[in-house]
Amino acid sequence: MVLKKIPKVKKLMEVLIKCEDGAKLPVFGSKQAAGADLCAFLKEDFVLKAHTWYPIPTGCKISLPDGYEAQIRPRSGLAVKYGLSVLNTPGTVDPDYRGEIFVILINHSEKDFTIHNGDRIAQIVINKFEKINFKVTDKLPESERGEKGLGSTGIN
Predict the structure, then answer these.
(1) Which residue has the higher pLDDT, 111 or 150?
(2) Domain range for residue 73?
(3) This prediction's pTM
(4) Which of 48, 112, 138, 156 has its CA 20 to 30 A from that of 81?
(5) Residue 7 pLDDT more than 90?
């Protein structure tokens, strides 16, 4: 008789979320998706004019454990098809913030874009971060790269 090894079930992190009546919970588009889609929470359609930006409400608030942040990122399909992105990519939701999550969408295209209630407008990814203490110094250790930046490594 061959015994099968039972895979360990990874315990999922729990994030408390409170959504307004009618607002959609974030949802993962696939089994291994890193980000969950955030949806617009609008009373009426909103037209995001070409070359403008606006904070779009989601109707959702979260409570993160200390040491974690939520990053608000663009959806690639909206970027490639319509020229939409998140203005402050990635937007950060701090663990002590309890207000509604807004997505600052920017329309880079030449055409106005209509956002409907419930449209998937961005994605939310939870990340661990380290708290740091800045230590002032007069000199930094040398490195191979040094101060080379802003394209110094070329494109090919």
Answers:
(1) 111
(2) 24-128
(3) 0.86
(4) 156
(5) no
Task: State the burial class of residue 27 (Cβ atoms within 10 Å of its Cβ: 0-12, 13-18, 19+).
Answer: exposed
Q: What is the DSSP letter of 88?
A: T
Buried b (16+ CB within 10 A) or exposed e, 130-147: eeeeeeeeeeeeeeeeee
Identity of the residue numbered 142 = E
Say how far residue 112 (Cα) sits from the centre of its chain.
Answer: 23
Tallying the residues shown for the chain, one arrives at 156
CA–CA gap between residue 50 and residue 113 (Å, rounded): 7
Of 40-44, 55-59, 131-135, 142-146, the least confident: 142-146
| Element of type H or E holding 76 | helix 76-82
Structure-token pair, residue 7 = 């895979």
Structure tokens at 32: 């291994």
pLDDT of 9 over the 80 cut? no
Residue 66 forms part of a structural domain = yes
In a domain, 2, yes or no: no
Nearest to 86 by CA among 56, 49, 42: 56
